[in-house]
Amino acid sequence: MAAAHRSINFLVIFILSLFSLALAQDENQFIYHGFSETKLDLDGIAKIHSNGLLQLTNTSELKIGHAFYPFPFKFNISSPQSLSFSTTFVFGIVSKTLNFGGNGMSFFILPSKNMREAVAGPYLGLFNLSNNGLPTNHILAVELDTVQSSEVKDINGNHVGVDVNSLQSNESAAATYFSNKEGKNIGLQLAGGDPIQIWIDYNGADKFLNVTLAPLGIPKPNRPLLSTPIDLSKILLDSMYVGLSASTGTRVSDQYILGWSFNRSGQAQNLDISKLPQSPSPPKNGSNKVLDRATVVSLIATVVVLITIGAAVYIVRKKKYEEVNEDWEKEYGPHRISYKNLYKATKGFKDKELIGQGGFGKVYRGALPPSNLQIAVKRVTHDSVGGMRQFVAEIVLMRRLRHRNLLLKTGKATTSTDVFAFGAFMLEVACGRRPMAMEPGEKDLVDWVTDFLKRGAIIDASDPRLEGIYVEKEMELVLKLGLYCSDSNPETRPSMKQVIQYLDGGTMLPNTPPGSIVIGEFTTRNEPPDNVVSFHSLVGSSSYTTTTNDSNLTVGR
After folding, report:
1. What is the pTM for the complete model shown?
2. According to the lineage, what is the superkingdom (predicted)?
């Protein structure tokens, strides 16, 4: 009899222990596969459908929906290392128009279920304008935001953020998940309508909050989307409620929860996908022709921005290649190579293509498309009004010259003329002077350099702006070779092949008697030959080349 009594007592104690254990488990965790039989506290427009689907918001503007677990959880904030929790839920955001949901949802932990002062729109039904950011809120939230709100400094319109007492996230990231199979992050569209699972885990010992996403049916990724250092013992109170919230603004969407699991002191139980209610089908491309007001405004703004950018690019490109007709072209007529071709030929007038510089412009080497013809282009600065007149005078004079080296049988340039022009070019670059005399009593460049040669001081003819920073033998070679190419007798000038040999140092330059180098006499004729000249000008500066039927000559500075 006594033994039987002891057995009954033991059974009662065992049953009571199991009951106490069950109560303890219920106080620390829950799991819901659908919400038909639950007693969640709902407010706003949140409701539970007959199939167990929890709907937080619908397609009404500026609305809020909350779902609270009805009882508070005891968080041991006095022992931060034991302050841990884990939760996972499956959500779906279905909008009228594809990828335009609003305004997102969140998981939260807060000290009270009284949310009467919370507002919709970007505040997600958690805060309002006056309390957003206050440390007395004691709120932790993980937001799934589908609208970029500049007032809270959102990174984009499709992100996950960790919020502490404010909607300005401590840390946020674009919505992606790590594929264990492919070993890389893959993008997720939160408002795409397809169900997505989220895991939120906090370890009090490490003081890290991890947030992980994945499409429904894919195992939890090995890498979290966010891993944020945070000490919840300084944020939470001993008694806190957990829940889910969502809101709409001028953008609207149906926001659903399919299942939810939470554990205050350990790992949340895994959700069984087969037990979850069916989520609404996401919209298909082109299936919704009617756009909401915010979407229309957004699309219009996007189109306006794109048109503005396109117009700006067009104007800049047009300005870049814009042609300007000079006043003197009215008299002589425009004969041009397009600035666009000259720009490309000189690689955009890059400094590395610079081969000379004078008082009113710079000279660049170039290759003229499509024949790849080698040219030199002078870019004349419009600010130098006197320089422009001098340059035009050079051009006009060259058009009317009759030189005995032609500058008589055909009136066309010869290879000797090319050598003569190259010699003038070398002297121009080395001396920093114009090749032609422009003022009364001024000597032409060849005569001027010849005087230095006769005095035995040809090196003194070099450009004083160089300040002597050159190899004297090389400068002397350039000056003498320039005179040699400018010999008044075309037959005594070197060929271009010989010029290259002299410059390369393969052949010694002959000692040309100074008296044999003079500038030939020029006479002008009333009408210029038909085979010259082409000019080009541009906005801010001008570029010129001269051409003939048989050869291409470059005008120096």
Report:
1. 0.50
2. Eukaryota
